[in-house]
Amino acid sequence: MAYEGEILEQCGVIDIDFSETTVIAVSGDKPNVFGHLLIYAGKSRGGYYFHVAGGVHSYPHYMTEAGYRRYLRETKKKELRRLPVMLTNPQDALLYLENLLANKWLWLVVPNNCVAFVEEIIKAGGGTWASYSNLPTVATSDTISLRIQRLFSYLDAEIYKLYGVQRY
Question: In terms of pLDDT, which residue wins out, 153 or 63?
């Protein structure tokens, strides 16, 4: 069986800091074409990844950076996107996550899946990020406004290049 991370059996074993938080989308595995979602916290302290995987009713897992690389390698997944999120109450996110890690998660495919797990932690921490879909690759896709912004930036750069004007 591929590596999915570790089960936290005791609080205080790892140093989790939600002042730096990121939502991470990775590719799915067959038959899951919609991908998988994890939450990453505490880059300044080495960072940890958290997610639910491995069964209908199982404990959430955590991983170090090395564990995450192993997870990607063994599951043959690829990282698709990282979205930084701001939490106004990082300590509340930590307390909520510790509770989640201590209890089995009931995986219900779409309604109570990896996206819901990540959303609950963010909400507990006072964050506003939420998906409009419980399908990971859809939930983290670019918004229309971001796509438009990228298009205008590209067009702007091409115009400068066309006229040979240096940008400062």
Answer: 63
